[in-house]
Design brief:
Blueprint: H1 2-9, E1 13-16, H2 28-40, E2 45-49, H3 51-60, E3 65-68, H4 84-93, E4 97-101, H5 113-123, E5 128-132, H6 136-144, E6 149-151, H7 169-178, E7 183-186, H8 192-200, E8 205-208, H9 210-213, H10 215-225
Parallel strand pairs: 1-2, 1-8, 2-3, 3-4, 4-5, 5-6, 6-7, 7-8
């Protein structure tokens, strides 16, 4: 099963269908509709957060699912699938791939990345674990902890990398050279040129979110262009 899923997502576009509470597109029915539209457009996989959204999408779309569970714990910066319990929740909802924070930052309950990944592999041997990283260093760390995939998701979204506000193909290139597991490009991919650059840099697959599933952001981009 792992090999089949890995082959399905290879060299394609995975679409991230997410919306937080309070955002215009929030709601499991809307997320399922976005995923359906992505599938119709040729997406090879979907990324989504929260068990209810994942389950709703899996009922409608038969594509591999990268599941995450965004949970905020007071005193902790880690919020992408921060605990083993959050991993189990999205596995139960139908995710074949679970993504979790791959940095060295402290996690709730004193849990460690390596321990979480080990538990997932032991209890759910068919599940693929992807580590969302912000740098080459955290990518190497995650691979050493047992991650099956490493992504660039958090580049630009941690205190150490907050200056990264545009797509960085060089990060993918260096990760591909230094890390033994496949690299998933994600974050700040806003154009076809970025997509192609990601693959030229050595990406195994590419996740695109905002540029496809955030109509308010896309609209603002066009509106702002009229002001310049």
């Amino acid at each position: 099963m792992k090999k089949e899923i890995m082959e399905q997502i290879r060299n394609g576009v995975i679409v991230s269908c997410q919306a937080r509470k309070g955002w215009p597109m929030y709601g499991k029915e809307i997320m399922a509709a976005f995923a359906n539209a992505a599938a119709a457009g040729g997406a090879v996989g979907i990324r989504a957060t929260e068990p209810e959204n994942i389950a709703a999408i899996k009922r409608e779309v038969k594509l591999p699912m990268i599941g995450i569970y965004k949970q905020w714990f007071e005193g902790y910066d880690v919020y992408i699938t921060p605990t083993f319990a959050s991993c189990e929740a999205i596995i139960a909802a139908g995710a074949e791939i679970i993504a979790l924070d791959g940095t060295k930052r402290p996690r709730p309950n004193g849990e460690k990345l390596a321990d979480i990944i080990t538990k997932v592999h032991e209890k759910y041997p068919e599940i693929i674990v992807m580590a969302d990283c912000d740098s080459v260093e955290s990518g190497i760390y995650s691979a050493n902890c047992g991650a099956d995939l490493v992504s660039t998701t958090l580049a630009g979204y941690t205190e150490e990398t907050k200056e990264k506000t545009v797509f960085d193909a060089d990060l993918i290139r260096v990760m591909s050279e230094k890390i033994v597991v496949p690299i998933i490009a994600e974050g700040h991919i806003a154009s076809v040129a970025d997509l192609k650059a990601a693959y030229q840099a050595g990406a195994y697959s590419v996740v695109i979110g905002t540029a496809i599933t955030r109509p308010e952001v896309i609209t603002k981009k066009f509106v702002t262009s009229l002001e310049n």
